[in-house]
Amino acid sequence: MYEIDTSVVEGWPDPAALEEAAAPLLEHAQGVVNVVQAAASEWSGLADVYRAPEAAELVAAFGKPVQVSEALRTGVVVVYRALLGYADTVRDLNRRRGLLLDEIEAFYRERDTYLERMALMEGMGDESASMSGTAVAYEADDLQRRVRSLAAEHEQAENDCARRINSVPPADGPVPAYYDAGTATDLAVDRTRSRLQYLESTAEAGAAGSLEMLALLKSLTPGQLLDYGMAEADFLRSGLASPPPVDQVRDWWAGLSPEQQAALMVAAPGVIGNLNGIPYKARAKANRINLDAVFKDPRTRAEDKAALQVIYKALKPADKLLAPPRSIVSFTPDENGKPLVAVAIGDLDTATNVTWNVPGMKTTVADGLESWTKSAQDLYDGQVFADLISKDKESNSVVSWVGYDSPEEPPSGEVLSTELAKAGGAKLAAALDGFTETRATPEDDAGRPRLNVVAHSYGTTTASYALKATRHEVATATFFGSAGIEWREIGSAADLHVAKDPAGKPEVYVTAASEDRVAPLGILGSGLRGREGRWDPTGDWFGGKNFSSGGGYDPDTGTVYTRTTGHDAKGWAADGSGDTVFAATSDHGYLDPRTESAHNIALTSTGRGHLIKELIPLRHEARPGYGGMDYPTGPLIERDLTPEELTEERSK
User: Fold this and answer.
1) What pLDDT does 49 receive?
2) Could you write out the three-class secondary structure of 148-204?
3) For residue 153, how far is the Cα from the chain centroid?
4) Cα–Cα distance measured from residue 153 to residue 429, given in angstroms and rounded to the nearest whole number
5) CA 293/CA 156 separation, integer angstroms
6) Which of 276, 250, 174, 189 is nearest to 225 (CA)?
7) What are the φ/ψ torsions at residue 523 (nearest 5 degrees)?
């Protein structure tokens, strides 16, 4: 009675035996590579003595064996790491199994005591004896459940190990191959790797340590870089904690051979993909490699893979005939338990007008990247249209920057605090300064791209901290639907590092829709419970250039610009639904095409804020009333005015 089946946690492999079996793998694989490379080195000597039409082909004959040997070593490293990981897991499971078996033994002793007592009580006619067995039964069931759970963990670890081993491609598949001229530098390489590993584990190293790390990487050949990347893959998936100055990174990258650059994008994708000073085209390649590696890693959780799928979707060009390319500016696989990413629309290496688009609360990769990137595309399209109207030959790029840990929406109180905004502001400042310095052309200041910041909701709070901290001015900043600016830290728009117009006023633009009911609540709530408090930047205290989001008709053409009906950048609520209390209706978000706000933001973020017009207010459709009288209480007219209607409006 009350037996627990522990057979399912028996027969596990010995971790020490697994490690002993894995230990020789790397040595044997490297031995194959050494033999093949040595033979290739001898064979290459034919180039100096053999002259014939087929000489080049003959000398290159060892290319394939070298490639296969490198692929073999790559695969063996995967197997080696899989076995060691499995051994570590089994060792931990064995420890937990031992503790659980001890609990089961203690339970058996208590069970035997209980059974003796129950038999005695039943002999005395005590009917309550059987009732007391309920607790014993529950404990037995719980212990059995824990045994099964432990067995399931082992089965999962065993399957994970098998999947990683089975994922190794055939040795003759398409793999990068580099010839490193033998093993004469093995000792120096070992010292370099040892120093690199030390720097990885030394958080106090700072920018100087990061610069030393880059110099050490430069000293390695492409093949050695790939080896290092395989051995330290987890560390190299994230960026450097303290990046060196951008100009030093730029010089370092330029000093690498093309082969080293290509190898580093594969070996250290997280470092290269997030390092300011490296061309954005190279960063995009590295980040895509990193994204693919994390997605294919069997250790990546299902919920994280779902988030990464959103990044893949956001990288697809818009459904337009001449859609601009999209690329990953930065990518961090795990930041406080979730990925962060920035997606560029257009070419950041060549664009003459660049805009960082900063989102507000609850904009995560999983829940907000898709919508925010669509809004970034709408902004890009608006900028292109503004260029066409002005007949300017600009090239634009907009960055959908989901690059900071944004706050959760209420009832969470995160959005009422500035803590996440300050942390995000530091990251945004680094990204903005990094772009400016990466694209710097000291010999031609006029050729530098115009850099703009567009921010929504809590993103305006984040952007305000960033723009106070940047080393370089941006051309314009536009805040819409602001959740408030901390007035104690930022006394006015003049405190932000934003260029000024000829009259000396900062090029900081602000708008808030009258139907936006969310932003005022965030501002009001920020001052509750002793918080620092934030103020509305549309107020006179801030000194920004206010523009309307209420919609209206162009006084010169009668063209209609629709109003913004809620807090969202991209409207989604159905007309007449309860969602419209706080959400913007479809096509009526701040950045939706044809809204006044989107039109004006396209102007401000291309240096044309002075072209913003005061519109004729939207008209209501007249409805018949009692006694033959008309009452202007119908719906707003959101279409272009006819010439006659425009003339009528002008006459009012």
Assistant:
1) 55
2) HHHHHHHHHHHHHHHHHHHCCCCCCCCCCCCCCCCCCCHHHHHHHHHHHHHHHCCHH
3) 30
4) 44
5) 21
6) 189
7) -65, -45
Strands 552-553 and 560-561: antiparallel
Q: Which two tokens stand for residue 344?
A: 């560029």
Residue 618 neighbours by CB distance under 10 Å: 18
How high is the pLDDT of residue 183?
A: 40
Q: What percent of the chain has pLDDT over 90?
A: 51
Is 15 within 8 Å of 94 (Cβ atoms)? Answer: yes
CA 288, 420, 468, 359 dihedral sign is positive
CA dist 261 and 92 (Å) reads 40
Check: CB of residue 520 under 8 Å from CB of residue 482: no
Contact (Cβ atoms closer than 8 angstroms) between residue 480 and residue 456:
yes
Question: Token pair for residue 230?
Answer: 């395989």
Write the burial class of residue 531 (CB in 10 Å: 0-12 exposed, 13-18 middle, 19+ buried).
middle
The neighbouring-strand residues paired with 341 are 331, 402
Q: What is the largest CA-CA distance in the chain?
A: 111
Q: How many helices (H) and strands (E) does the chain have?
A: 18, 12
Instruction: Give the per-residue pLDDT at 507.
Output: 98
| Pairing of β 623-624 and β 630-631 | antiparallel
Amino acid identity, position 459: G
Give the integer Cα–Cα distance in Å for 529 and 387: 47
Q: Quote the CA–CA distance of 546 and 510 in Å, as a whole number.
A: 5
State which residues of the chain have pLDDT below 70.
1, 26-27, 29-31, 33-64, 66-67, 122-134, 169-187, 203-205, 321, 442-447, 529-532, 623-633
What would the pLDDT profile of 539-564 be if each residue is shown by its tens digit?
999 999 999 999 999 999 999 999 99
Give pLDDT, residue 201.
Answer: 73
- Let me know if 125 is exposed, middle or buried by CB neighbors in 10 A (0-12, 13-18, 19+): exposed
AA identity, residue 189: V
The CA-based angle 597-371-524, given to 5 degrees, is 60
Burial 244-271 (b: 16+ CB within 10 A, else e): bebebbbebbeebeeebbbbbbbbbbbb
- The total number of residues shown for the chain amounts to 652
